[in-house]
Amino acid sequence: MNAPLAVVTGGAGFLGGHLCRRLLEGGFRVLVLDDFSTGDPASVAALAEHPGFALRRHDITQPWPAEVGEAARIFNLACPASPAAYQRSPVQTTLTSTLGTWRALEVALQSGARVLQASTSEVYGDPEVHPQHESYRGHVNPIGPRACYDEGKRVAETLCMAYHLERGVEVRIARLFNSYGPGLRPGDGRVVSNFIVQALRGEPLTVYGEGRQTRSFCHVDDTVDGLLRLMDASIEGPVNLGNPQEYSVLDLAERVLRLTGSRSRLEHRPLPADDPKRRCPDISLAERHLGWCPRVTLDAGLRDTIEHFRRELTSAR
Ligand code: UDP
User: Residue 93 is part of which domain span?
Assistant: First the structure.
C-alpha cells in the first residue's frame, strides 16, 4: 500500500524544509507546492533523492495540480513570513493567504484531506493583552503596512472555520510566534537572522527603535514538533505555538554579540510603523491538548543558528 500523501505548500521555505524532513521520516510521501518567491529549492535539496518526495513550482493562488487529489494531509505554509519580504508584494501576500487558503480548502473538500493552516501571532496585531491567549481578538490596523499579512492570515482562519462548520472539512490552525533556527536565509530580514549575520560580518546590529519591544522566539524544532502534534490532535480552533519566554530586541542583540564573540556595535534605526510593542504566547491550550511545550532555550537555539550561519557565510565566500 502507498504511504499517505502530505501536501506542504511553502515546503521550500524555512519552516517547510524542516517539516518535510520530519514528514518523510514519519512515513509520509511529501508533495511540495512552492512558488520560490521566498522559498528556495536548495532548502529541500537534501530531500530530493528521497523516493517519496516531490517538488513543484506552483503559486497556490492558481488552480492546483491534479496530483494533490490524493492528499491525506495539507500543511498550508505558503506565504512570506518576514515583514521585509511580505511588504514588498502586499497584493500577492494577501492573495496567497486568502485565495491560496481557499484553494487548499476546496482540495480538502474533494479529497477528504485534513488541513493545517499556518497562522500567526500577527492575528493579535499590536496586542493590548499580555500574554496573548487564543480568545484574545487582537488589535490590527486593517490598512497599515502589515495588514497584507495580518489580515490575510485572519481571513485564512475565517475560511478554515467556515469550511469546517459549513462543509465539514477537518481543519487545524496553528498561531506561530517568531520561529527561528538553522535554515533561515541570510537575507531573510527577520531580526534573528539579521543580528547573527551582522554580528558574524562585524557589521553594526540594526536595532529598530529603542529595542525595548519584545518577542518570544521559538526554535524551529519545537515549532515543527508542535505542528505535527496539532495535525494529529482533535482540536479545531486556533492554538498558539510559541515559546513563552519573552525577550526585548536589545536583549536579543546582546545575546547574539555574546554568543558570537562579535565586537559589532548597535545602530538604532527608526521603528517601523505598527511594529508590535510586546508579544508573548499563552500556551496553556497547547500544553493541555497537545502535551506540547518548547524544549529549546534561547541560548541553545541561538548557538545552533549561529553555527548554521557560520557555515552559510563561509560557503558563500
Ligand atoms: N527588528 C530589529 N532589527 C532588525 C529586524 C527587526 O530591531 O534588523 C525588530 C523589529 O522591529 C521587531 C522585532 O525585531 O520589533 C522582530 O522583527 P521581525 O522582523 O523578526 O518579526 P516580527 O515579529 O516583527 O514579525
Answer: 5-179+218-241
From the candidates 86, 124, 136, 149, give the one annotated as an active-site residue.
149
Tell whether 41 and 62 lie within a shared domain.
Answer: yes
- Cis bond leading into 145, ω under 30°? no
Q: Residues lining ligand 1, CB < 6 A?
A: 82-83, 178, 190-191, 194, 206-208, 213, 215, 249, 272, 275
Q: Which three cell numbers stand for residue 305?
A: 543558528
Q: Which of 238, 312, 314, 248 is nearest to 279 (CA)?
A: 248
Ligand 1 center–CA 269 separation, angstroms: 11
Per-residue pLDDT of the chain (317 residues; tens, 9 = 90+): 589 999 999 999 999 999 999 999 999 999 999 999 999 999 899 999 999 999 999 999 999 999 999 999 999 999 999 999 999 999 999 999 999 999 999 999 999 999 999 999 999 999 999 999 999 999 999 999 999 999 999 999 999 999 999 999 999 999 999 999 999 999 999 999 999 999 999 999 999 999 999 999 999 999 999 999 999 999 999 999 999 999 999 999 999 999 999 999 999 999 999 999 999 999 999 999 999 999 999 999 999 999 999 999 998 77
Are 141 and 171 within one domain? yes
Grid cell for residue 197: 549575520
